[in-house]
Design a protein that fits this description.
The structure is a homopentamer of 82-residue chains. Chain A has 82 residues and is mainly beta. The first copy, chain A, has a domain of 55 residues: EutN/Ccml (OB fold (Dihydrolipoamide Acetyltransferase, E2P)). The two termini of chain A are 17 Å apart. In chain A, 55% of the residues are buried. Chain A contains one helix and seven strands. Chains A and B meet through β1, β2, β3, β4 and α1 of A and β5, α1, β6 and β7 of B. β7 of chain D pairs antiparallel with β1 of chain E.
């Protein structure tokens, strides 16, 4: 997974039927910007874990989705030496 | 998914049988150019959501496709802080 | 999918059994060089559509293949505004 | 697979149910930073093999995971000419 | 697939059970370094074809593997115009 920060969301009136009811968050990682389906109630400013690829699709009831927010990181509990 | 802008389309007379009837749009993201199967009626200039990988293939009736346009973004309704 | 140009082919005497009978084309995209299984009779100089990932494998009878040429673009019929 | 070095770990209180009980390691490869599920007991400083994509998901009991640490490299036994 | 050159191998005593008996080669492509399961008896210096992603996993009896060496290129028989 990748670590990213939620920076906003997008709306689409015209979309594939199976995408109805999904919330799409814009997430910035250190290298790219992705749009991911939210399943954990994340909001702007949250640091999140992104799962991408087929894994994300399965997680989202087989909708045509290739990225999902699967966790909100505990920022105080994050100890990363870089 | 990635956000991209539709910049045109491509035609192919010689192609895999299972690709017949598909419309292929050229979509530019911030980092690359892709050709994606259109399932939502997008046109040149539209800002769209691209699903890539196996997810796109499944969405397109198992044709040999690795990218699909799955939504047209509401440009007024887009609130992205970058 | 990505647009690429066929620049040659490769041969391999020692290979996985399930790869026998496949033609492998070298294809250059705007960003990388790939080797793809040919299923549409493409040749050097052709502008082609490349499908990558699991999709390509399925298209090639489940051989260990991760890229396939799935269409030859009609160059006159290509209208891409960039 | 990619070779990476474990540099830390992350915690998440709010996460997808199926992620409970997983340990998530931060792993640095030569090109990027990933978060991977640990299945072999790796710790900070270990040189590890990372499997990514659907493969990692299957290895982790179908949780929404796209990267897993699948081996700890024997550093003395590593002979790589570059 | 990608073309790469075998530059060495790696050993791991602590690894996922399903990886036992696999040989892991370090392969350099034009853009990155990967570790791939060898199924064709390749050795250091060989020019090989790499299959990546789920395809590689399936080829290796569903072990948690995301890259496999699937062919050794005939270097004399390689005609690539670049």
């Amino acid at each position: 997974m990748k670590i990213g920060k939620v920076t906003g969301s997008v709306w689409a009136t015209r979309k594939a039927d199976c995408l109805s009811g999904q919330t799409f968050l814009v997430v910035e990682t250190s290298t790219e910007q992705l749009v991911a389906a939210d399943q954990v109630g994340a909001g702007t400013g949250d640091l999140v874990l992104l799962a991408t690829g087929t894994t994300a699709a399965r997680y989202c009831l087989d909708a045509p989705i290739d990225a999902a927010v699967v966790a909100i990181l505990d920022q105080e509990g994050k100890h990363v030496s870089t």
